[in-house]
Specification:
single chain; 532 residues; alpha/beta; Rossmann fold; six-stranded parallel β-sheet; globular
């Protein structure tokens, strides 16, 4: 066979192989951009998600600088990291939030004030102020903004005069939808504060509508007031555009959510789902002692964590005793993340650690059950790795997340306020011994991973898209430029109603006029003379 024939024989195969590679790893032809990641949230679980986005961009070759609260959660990342403060106890957490179950709207005012104060303190951190003095307009091509009701800090994009990409930790709330004009659709899309799942019955839809109205009118009005106040203080109107104009500079929103998790809802083109971005595509090696425990426990291991924000001091002694008594009697090894308080007790089957690499542990095939607080990050990691759950939701979106878990068949939930040894043990035993939970969540795991691009590839593609098209304004929904009443078509409905009423008024007047004229022109009847 000639060299030419050999060449033509392998050329189609090489073309097919190259096409497959390009389909998995899309090329963008974008030069390395200078990207600033700004993550002022005090919550470590939030920082984990935002830093995963920043790391994906840095790994793709972009020059990424991250300014964030607390230590770097991704030690091997390629971005430059500026730590603002050592993250200790969550400044927004308290025993009341965990142990006194109150409607979210009743404590939202104090919650929002605390968030704004924290964000303002972060903004005035000497390292941030020095950074802003050293870097001016044109120094960055993009602002990667970790959102946690800190709208006023979007003014950083006004300082650097660059587009904004928002990173959000869960499914979008109203304030996030507003950035890109994403419809809320409360008629069939449950909000995270209503603790409802699809499909909703009539009374559930009534509740969801009321919650949506509170979120849109009351909560958003309070947020706008506080954010405007802090924005004017930090970004004076003589040097910066108004906050409403800065909000319109959001090119993309990344949400740590995926449609397969539910609820099903419509999204505008520039709201991109990257559910599972914090999950490593290849788990890191486990610490030697943890790896030994997991490898040698062929009967299975239980992993127990109430997240990065909850400390032992937030729980009552009664609830701690209930959890310890149940878990210490289980015939399995239990890895229990517990910090920084005195241990609940000693038991041969429990291994306490202040920190555990959760994602890497859940990836181990010998993990039998995850006892979790139901934070979205934890739920996502458990779903991704196909591990059934028992949830003890405590606050925020956790009850809603666990309601979805239970409704989908991935595990069970125990109410923290009314929890007893019997209720907790019953849930654990049911999930451990009924194979339906494991089968259902592992089936979902295969569904959840089935995507045209991984979350990291999705992040890189869409950020490069925004950079290629100078902010990608063509993706922006016209809804961004409408106010609340225009979005509800109140002005249009009022206009049409006015036309109907005016037309009806004119018709009635004309009809009356015709009737009056008819009576005036009517000839009087001639009476016949009586005959004698």
């Amino acid at each position: 066979m000639s060299q030419r024939a050999k060449y033509t024989n392998w050329l189609p195969a090489a073309y097919i192989a190259l096409s497959c590679v390009l389909s998995v790893y899309p090329t963008t032809c974008v030069d390395a951009a200078r990207i600033l990641g700004f993550f002022s949230s005090p919550s470590k679980s939030h920082i984990i998600v935002h830093c995963a986005v920043a790391d994906a961009l840095a790994q793709a070759g972009h020059d990424v600088t991250v300014i964030a609260s607390g230590p770097n959660v991704r030690k091997q990342a390629k971005y430059k990291y500026i730590e603002l403060a050592t993250m200790g106890d969550h400044p927004l957490m308290s025993t009341d939030i965990v142990n006194k179950r109150q409607p979210f709207w009743r404590r939202f005012g104090s919650f929002l004030s605390a968030i704004n104060r924290n964000a303002n303190e972060t903004h005035h951190n000497p390292r941030v102020q020095r950074f802003l003095q050293q870097h001016q307009a044109g120094d960055f091509d993009l602002l990667l903004f970790g959102y946690f009701m800190n709208d006023f800090q979007l003014g950083l994009a006004g300082h650097f005069r660059c587009p904004i990409v928002v990173s959000f930790m869960i499914q979008p709330i109203f304030a996030v939808n507003k950035f890109v004009g994403n419809p809320s659709e409360p008629a069939y899309v449950p909000g995270i504060f209503g603790y409802l799942v699809q499909p909703m019955k009539f009374l559930e839809r009534v509740k969801n509508m009321i919650v949506a109205m509170i979120e849109e009118i009351v909560i958003q009005t309070m947020m706008d007031y506080h954010e405007s106040k802090y924005y004017k203080y930090n970004f004076p109107p003589d040097r910066y555009p108004p906050l409403d104009e800065v909000r319109k500079n959001v090119s993309l929103v990344f949400t740590n959510h995926h449609f397969s998790q539910g609820p099903i809802r419509p999204n505008v083109p520039n709201l991109i789902e990257i559910g599972g971005i914090q999950v490593k595509e290849k788990p890191d090696p486990l610490p030697t002692d943890i790896a030994k425990i997991l490898d040698e426990s062929k009967e299975g291991v239980i992993y127990f964590s109430l997240g990065s924000n909850i400390q032992g001091s937030h729980l009552t002694e009664e609830k701690i005793k209930i959890m310890f008594n149940v878990i210490s009697k289980l015939p399995y090894k239990v890895l229990w993340k517990w910090a920084p308080n005195e241990l609940p007790g000693e038991s041969k089957n429990i291994i306490f650690r202040e920190w555990l690499p959760q994602d890497d542990i859940l990836a181990h095939p010998n993990i039998k059950l995850f006892i979790t607080h139901g934070g979205m990050g934890s739920v996502v990691e458990s779903q991704y790795h196909g591990v059934p759950m028992v949830g003890i939701p405590l606050f925020g979106d956790q009850p809603s997340n666990m309601a979805n878990v239970v409704n989908s068949g991935y595990g069970l939930s125990v109410d923290y306020i009314t929890m007893t040894e019997e209720s907790l043990n019953s849930a654990i035993q049911d999930v451990l011994h009924n194979p339906k939970y494991k089968e259902t969540v592992q089936k979902f795991s295969r569904l959840y991973r089935d995507r045209p691009m991984t979350p990291r590839q999705t992040v890189v593609y869409w950020v490069d898209y925004v950079l290629r098209h100078q902010g990608a304004k063509h993706m922006q929904s016209p809804a961004v430029h409408l106010n609340r009443w225009q979005l509800l078509s109140v002005d249009v409905i009022g206009f049409l109603l006015a036309i109907v009423l005016i037309s009806a008024f004119v018709i009635i007047k004309v009809f009356k006029l015709i009737c009056c004229c008819g009576k005036k022109n009517k000839l009087p009847k001639v009476k016949k003379a009586k005959q004698n």
